[in-house]
Amino acid sequence: MSEKIDWTPIKEFKEILFTQHGGIAKISINRPEVHNAFTPLTVQEMIEAMHICRDRTDIGVVVFTGEGGKAFCSGGDQSVRGHGGYVGEDAVPRLNVLDLQKLIRSLPKPVIAMVAGWAIGGGHVLHVVCDLTIAADNARFGQTGPKVGSFDGGFGASYLARVVGQKKAREIWFLCDQYDAQEALDMGLVNTVVPLDKLEETTVAWCNKILQRSPLALRMLKSSLNAELDGQAGIQELAGNATLLYYLSEEAKEGRNAFIEKRQPDFDKYPKFP
Ligand code: S0N
């Protein structure tokens, strides 16, 4: 018997569901009729939800998924792909999923992709940029770019190659084959594979374990793992976290207090660690 998890709505959207269970937020694409393909609006809503997850201090981990059990996400909705991007109600073509990818990567909390069914094209890239991927046994993974006239040369190529290696990444993009959950596990593309009816309860169990860990340590680890690969943007993220930690110290507060009190700071009492 699979355990039923109660999810409380955080905010109503048109194309996604955004809910919470304790310290876990769940962002779920709600377009199962097109295997959860995304439009500019879907992406805009996911970006807003990610910002809320970032700002809410009671949320410690984010689950990213798709509704219906048959697809995580099938990438950009090809029916609204126009001249230079995906076209929303304002008639402007956009590739705003790139902004979402950066947000997932720099969110200072773990993001877990919970994948049932298809993770294809831009949908595959979204699971790749998540910190962890938990796959159901019906999950299928792959890129379609060269088949449908697109490609993602950013995280979708370079980070994929870091995850599965250069040879495998080139195979995935050049052949556009599909890989089942076990093959994905074997190539290190996902963290674990579970029966479909155990997907949510396993994901929540992983989240609850993460929630027992030190949030600052998790934050530092995520930005440290990113920094090695992300150049100046990665260093900025890691250094920002170092600043956060420094601001928590009495030594840093002495600098602020001295300025406010219009006196010279007294840093003598703070140790010069080896
Ligand atoms: C997933 C597939 C293999 C499933 O096949 P299956 O099970 O036979 O189902 P279908 O009958 O094909 O699908 C069911 C219904 O869903 C619709 N549908 C599926 N995927 C999409 C989609 N992506 N867009 C619009 N509709 C979709 C089907 O049409 C069908 O509807 P009905 O019932 O009405 O016929 C199979 O569905 C499949 O191959 N899907 C397409 C996968 C794909 O090619 N995705 C797009 C890949 N490209 C991107 O995602 C680009 C991402 C991006 O934005 C980007 C990012 C960075 C840089 C560049 C780009 C860029 O856009 O170029």
Automatic annotation (TrEMBL):
Species annotation: Hymenobacter actinosclerus
Recorded catalytic activity of this chain's protein: 2-succinylbenzoyl-CoA + H(+) = 1,4-dihydroxy-2-naphthoyl-CoA + H2O
UniProt-listed InterPro entries: ClpP/crotonase-like_dom_sf, DHNA-CoA_synthase_MenB, Enoyl-CoA_hyd/isom_CS, Enoyl-CoA_hydra/iso, Enoyl-CoA_hydra_C
Biological processes annotated in GO: menaquinone biosynthetic process
Cofactor(s) essential for the protein: hydrogencarbonate
Official protein name in the record: 1,4-dihydroxy-2-naphthoyl-CoA synthase
The keyword Iron appears for this protein: no
Family named by the database record: Belongs to the enoyl-CoA hydratase/isomerase family. MenB subfamily.
HAMAP family: MenB (MF_01934)
Annotated keywords: Lyase, Menaquinone biosynthesis
Annotated function: Converts o-succinylbenzoyl-CoA (OSB-CoA) to 1,4-dihydroxy-2-naphthoyl-CoA (DHNA-CoA).
Enzyme Commission number: 4.1.3.36
Keyword Lyase assigned: yes
One Pfam entry name: ECH_1
Gene behind the chain: menB
Residues bound to substrate: 74-78, 86, 118-122, 144, 150, 247, 262
GO cellular component: cytosol
Marked site positions, Important for catalysis: Y86, Y247
An example molecular function term from Gene Ontology annotations: 1,4-dihydroxy-2-naphthoyl-CoA synthase activity
Pathway stated in the Swiss-Prot or TrEMBL entry: Quinol/quinone metabolism; menaquinone biosynthesis; Quinol/quinone metabolism; 1,4-dihydroxy-2-naphthoate biosynthesis; 1,4-dihydroxy-2-naphthoate from chorismate: step 6/7
Residues engaged in binding hydrogencarbonate: Q143, T144, G145
Alphabetical list of SUPFAM superfamilies matching this protein: ClpP/crotonase (SSF52096)
